[in-house]
Amino acid sequence: MQQQPFLRPEVQDFSPYTPGLSIDEIHEKYGLSRVIKLASNENPLGVSSLVQKALQDHAAGVFRYPRSGSPELRAALAAHLDVPEEWIVAGNGSDEIIDLLIRVAARPGRDHILIFEPSFSMYRLLAKLSGVEIRTVPLGEDYHFPWDNLLRAVTEETALVFVTTPDNPTGYAPPVQELEILARRLPSRTLLVVDEAYMDFASPMDHYSLLSRLRDFPNVVVLRTFSKLYGLAGLRLGYGVMPPWLADALIRVKPPFSVNILAEIAGLAALRDVHFVQASLDCVQVGRAWLTTELTSLGCRVFPSQANFLLFRLGHAAMSTLDVFQKLLEQGVIIRPLKSYGMEEYLRVTVGTEEENRIFVRELEAVLHG
Ligand code: PMP
């Protein structure tokens, strides 16, 4: 690309986030009547009717600015999670909390951030935009977390360590005791950020989540999102739970209205709709088990997952992984190739509704054996 003197060097060669393809794009491109999207780990049941009603009821209020800091949502989350309000920061998706943490805690040109490789690409992208170095530690066999290698890479300049559990794109979740040990072994000025975007789907959650134990760890942040279990990906709502001095710093520097008025209303309603949440969980947990069995019987290697998606590898297919992905697209089934994660041989599929799962398996079988 031609150098542009007005742009910072980090921006000149910045490769943007690669999102899952959209249903509209595929409709238009292939002229299909039915397209299903199992590519972005969204909620298979859509959005709760209680949330939709709350959004309609509050539509007339959008000419007002929201209250800065989303106090009502903060209070509701504090009650829901049994943590003090002062520990919670709501953001425009958990993406915004990741960005704020980097900008608040890491000194460009001096500190670095440590992540496993492969991992969710936003850590790397947002660090780059902030001019903060990213260092990586390869994941171990079967994509488990090699803690000793990670700890060996930590120095006094490690400002943040990001760990995703359940991991994206593998679905792997380590026992929570492993994270507790990691948190205790990090130097005192290194923050451990545990990204629990998919933790709602883990079972039993207590076996994997650090959130209920945060009181014991002054150097740990837990990230959660309304994009998955609560079905609000398009409204952009996530949050971090962290020590109050850190929450205070994030809130002081954060754009005041980044959580919009309807996102806050939707979040409050989503927390109340326990029936929708339970139905979503049931759908994902049943679908995940069913897809695992079906993909395995098609000869695929499926990785155990605590999330709402499955990582898999084809058996001895005559076709390349990318060809299989492309053929599925042409049949109106969007899943996720993992080239952007450097995992060309793998595919990731989001657990859909029972019908979507059946269509995906039928089309995959036709591609592989037909
Ligand atoms: N962390 C991980 C691991 C994710 O996969 C995602 C969503 N793809 C996010 C964070 C961001 O979620 P949000 O929609 O809340 O910004």
The H/E string reads HHEHHEHEHEHEHEEEHHHEEHEEEH
Helix content: 25-40%
Number of strands: 13
Rg, rounded, reads 21 Å
Strands of the widest sheet, in order across it, are: 2-8-7-6-5-3-4
Which stretches are poorly predicted, pLDDT < 50 over at least 5 residues?
none
Enumerate the distinct ligands.
Answer: 4'-deoxy-4'-aminopyridoxal-5'-phosphate
Count of individual helical segments: 13
Structural description of this entry:
The protein has 13 helices and 13 strands. It is an alpha/beta fold. Helix 3 (49-58) packs antiparallel against helix 10 (261-272), helix 4 (71-81) packs parallel to helix 10 and helix 5 (94-105) crosses helix 6 (122-129). The mean pLDDT is 96. The site of 4'-deoxy-4'-aminopyridoxal-5'-phosphate has 12 residues, from helix 5.
Summary keywords:
370 residues; alpha/beta; seven-stranded mixed β-sheet; four-stranded antiparallel β-sheet; 38% helix; 15% strand; binds 4'-deoxy-4'-aminopyridoxal-5'-phosphate
Per-chain topology:
Blueprint: H1 9-12, H2 23-30, E1 36-37, H3 49-58, H4 71-81, E2 88-91, H5 94-105, E3 112-117, H6 122-129, E4 133-138, H7 147-153, E5 158-164, H8 176-185, E6 191-195, E7 220-225, E8 238-241, H9 244-253, H10 261-272, H11 274-297, E9 301-302, E10 309-313, H12 321-330, E11 333-334, E12 336-337, E13 346-350, H13 354-369
Helix pairs in contact: 3-10, 4-10, 5-6
The protein binds 4'-deoxy-4'-aminopyridoxal-5'-phosphate (PMP).
